[in-house]
Specification:
59% of the residues lie in helices and 9% in strands. By secondary structure, it is α/β, with parallel strands linked by helices.
Length: 293
């Protein structure tokens, strides 16, 4: 266990660096780029913040206070302010009128918060001349997104995870699991705050996180499911690019994806997974996701 923990402390930054190289973010690995860090104070964002420092970035922490949890929201803001001061990291904070946004647009709480957050990130990236804005999405988030899309009836086109990069937004922690993140913080002696709404089943994502994912852990199928999510996303990206480029190998991957979907629709889940396993040999790039933890 000692060696495993020691390796975990040393490996996250290396894993993230390789993941970025493999997923079109290599330009951020030279020099000292000025990168926005979405920082809620939670475990994911604190890991992201300290990984950014380890990568040699000039991190600019961005904290959103939605004011939805009363004293807890104030606690989170104070925690982030203190953590950034200790780390010598520049911090920008904002408070949002979520109720006003919902009345204006008719959006749900989740959608209103997401829209406000990303709109501000986009705006401040321009005014502060940030090269990118990093969010703390990790491998487990990919599984949740995939399961939500699957439950909603998405086919191969929709059954994909979170993209590692979209516009100015990057997600360098997608190569790490929630367990790895928590163990990393524990061994580094780094604190974080916990959002009490994470323990509620009020939202679909929380029901998956608290119900389906722990069940997968118990049944020993979590790792292949998570690996499958990564394969499906990479497959989707690679096949689209390859078909446009006229790459015969890529077209074969695209055809295999459709075959895999047919097996899934026929209830032949094991066969569908084997198809995905074959695909990864062509697409590649998910080695870290298949390593034991």
């Amino acid at each position: 266990m000692t060696n495993r923990r020691t390796n975990l402390i040393e490996s996250p930054t290396g894993r993230v660096r390789q993941y970025m190289r493999d997923n079109g973010m290599g330009w951020l690995l030279t020099g000292h780029p000025r990168v926005g860090i979405a920082c809620s104070g939670g475990a994911d964002s604190m890991t992201l913040l300290h990984t950014a420092i380890d990568l040699g970035w000039e991190p600019v922490a961005l904290h959103c206070n939605f004011g939805l949890r009363g004293e807890e929201s104030e606690r989170d803001e104070a925690f982030v302010s203190d953590a950034c001061a200790k780390a010598g990291v520049e911090l920008h904070k904002i408070r949002f009128d979520v109720d006003g946004r919902m009345k204006e647009t008719g959006e749900s709480v989740e959608m209103a918060c997401r829209a406000l957050r990303y709109e501000w990130f986009q705006e401040i990236a321009g005014t502060m001349r940030l090269e990118a804005v990093a969010t703390g999405h990790h491998g487990d988030d990919n599984v949740e997104t995939f399961l939500l899309n699957t439950i909603r009836g998405c086919g191969t086109g929709g059954a994909k995870g979170i993209p590692p990069r979209r516009g100015i937004f990057i997600r360098p922690l997608l190569c790490l699991t929630r367990q790895q993140i928590l163990l990393f913080l524990e061994m580094k002696g780094l604190e974080h705050v916990t959002d009490s709404t994470n323990h509620s089943n009020d939202f679909s994502r929380n029901k998956i996180l608290r119900g389906m994912l722990p069940l997968q852990y118990e049944r020993g199928v979590y790792r292949p499911v998570r690996a499958g999510v990564c394969k499906l996303f990479l497959l989707n990206q690679a096949s689209q690019q390859a078909v446009v480029a006229g790459d015969v190998r890529g077209s074969g991957v695209y055809t295999a994806a459709r075959s895999g979907e047919a097996f899934l629709e026929g209830g032949q889940y094991d066969v569908a997974y084997l198809v995905a396993a074959e695909i990864v040999g062509v697409v590649g790039g998910v080695g870290d996701m298949l390593q034991p933890f």
